[in-house]
Every structure is written in structure tokens, then in C-alpha cells.
């Protein structure tokens, strides 16, 4: 896979050009291709990735490492099959807090990070304060989590639960 090479930073030709008014590196066509391939298959070998984007393996390695170092890739991990792990029920939970203050948001966020069954937590605008994405075995499993843990989180006034009947699009690659 991709390994750190401290020497690549010495090569001036490999530094990403900077936009004049921004500190965000500019991605060229090859960088974008590398990111698209990594998004599809994080286990792709450097040799296969280099061939797919039509550059040498050394150039591909340096560019890929730079994309990691510059934060374009946050990490690489396996996508697990929830059904095989007895977590086939997907639940979306809308949460309304009793107060809309920075302290109440902070307290809720600190508490929710400790719950390992919460896959995603998003602060949102609208009728809810947060949306949670949770995977459980079944409705009974969720009912126990809801009664024992979710409604007792700091500041929770109300929850609204949505059981997903069919996952039409899940974890799609970024379109850029």
C-alpha cells in the first residue's frame, strides 16, 4: 500500500501548486484520478494505481502520499457487510434538544461520541438538532438502546425514529 517517504517533499516538482488567495492545494487531473480510484478500491496496489492513472509507480507513490499528507484522504478502511455481522437494521434518529445553546450542543456531542453503536451524528438545521445513523440487530435491539441510552443523553427533549426499509444509495463515492 502507501508508505511514508520523507524524501519526496524535497522534490520541488512534486509540490502541489497553491491558489493565489487560498491555502488549499490545487488538484490536477492525475490527482483527481488517483482519488477516484482510491475511493473505489482503497486496497489497490501502488503498481495497479500507477497503471490506472498512467504514471510511474514512484510518481504515483509520491502523489498519493502527498494527497494523504495534505488531508485529501482521511483514511482507508474496509466496508463491512452489516448483514453478515448481525447488524442488518438501519435506523435514522432525529434528535431535538431542550435548549439550543453552545453548552447543550457540546454536552450532547461529547456524550454521543461515547456510544459505539452510533455510526454517524450530524448537527442539522431544521426541525431537528441532530440526525443519528445507527445499525442494530432488529427493532427489539433498537428499542433497548433507545430506552436505556438515547433518551437519557444530555439535553434530549425528543427523538423521532425512522427505520430504513431499503438502502437505495449508501456511502456513495464523492462526485468531484
Summarize the structure.
With 176 residues, the chain is an alpha+beta fold.
Could you name the key traits of this structure?
elongated, 2 domains, Alpha-Beta Plaits, 176 residues, alpha+beta, four-stranded antiparallel beta sheet, single chain, 32% helix
Describe the structure.
The protein has 176 residues and is of the alpha+beta class. It has helices spanning 29-40, 46-53, 57-69, 102-112, 139-150, and strands spanning 89-97, 118-123, 130-136, 156-163. The longest helix has 13 residues, at 57-69. It starts with 28 loop residues before the first helix and ends in a 13-residue tail after the last strand.
Count of helices?
Answer: 5
Structural class: alpha+beta
Mean pLDDT: 89
Calculate the terminal CA-CA distance, rounded to whole Å: 24 Å
Helical content (DSSP H or I, runs of 4+): 25-40%
What would you call the shape? elongated
What is the number of independent domains?
Answer: 2
Low-confidence stretches: 1-21
* Named CATH topology of the largest domain: Alpha-Beta Plaits
Number of DSSP strands?
A: 4
What does the secondary structure layout of this molecule look like, with pairings?
Blueprint: H1 29-40, H2 46-53, H3 57-69, E1 89-97, H4 102-112, E2 118-123, E3 130-136, H5 139-150, E4 156-163
Antiparallel strand pairs: 1-3, 1-4, 2-3
Helix pairs in contact: 1-2, 2-3
